[in-house]
Design a protein that fits this description.
Layout: E1 5-11, E2 18-23, H1 26-34, H2 41-44, E3 49-56, H3 59-70, H4 74-84, H5 92-95
Antiparallel strand pairs: 1-2, 1-3
Amino acid sequence: MEKKGYTYIITNKNNTTLYIGVTSNLKKRIWEHKNKVVEGFSKKYNLDKLVYFEVLDDVESAIKREKFLKGKKRQYKVNLIEESNKKWSDLYEDIL
């Protein structure tokens, strides 16, 4: 059985910076962002609010989707978030 893949977007409290990531364990990965476990972009810019995610059949599909989204302009990503999360609420509680 292939593991599911997740493509996700996190932001900061003011929704000014977007980060697109990919993982096979969304709960664990977002917990890591929230607890500043991993050095890098998300920690540096205090990105810990999950505003969008997609569940894909496998990690390879999630990586393709991540690359596709990273190639898009900010407005495309904003529209994607607002289609399902108008208020930019933190979806972390929803996945627990």
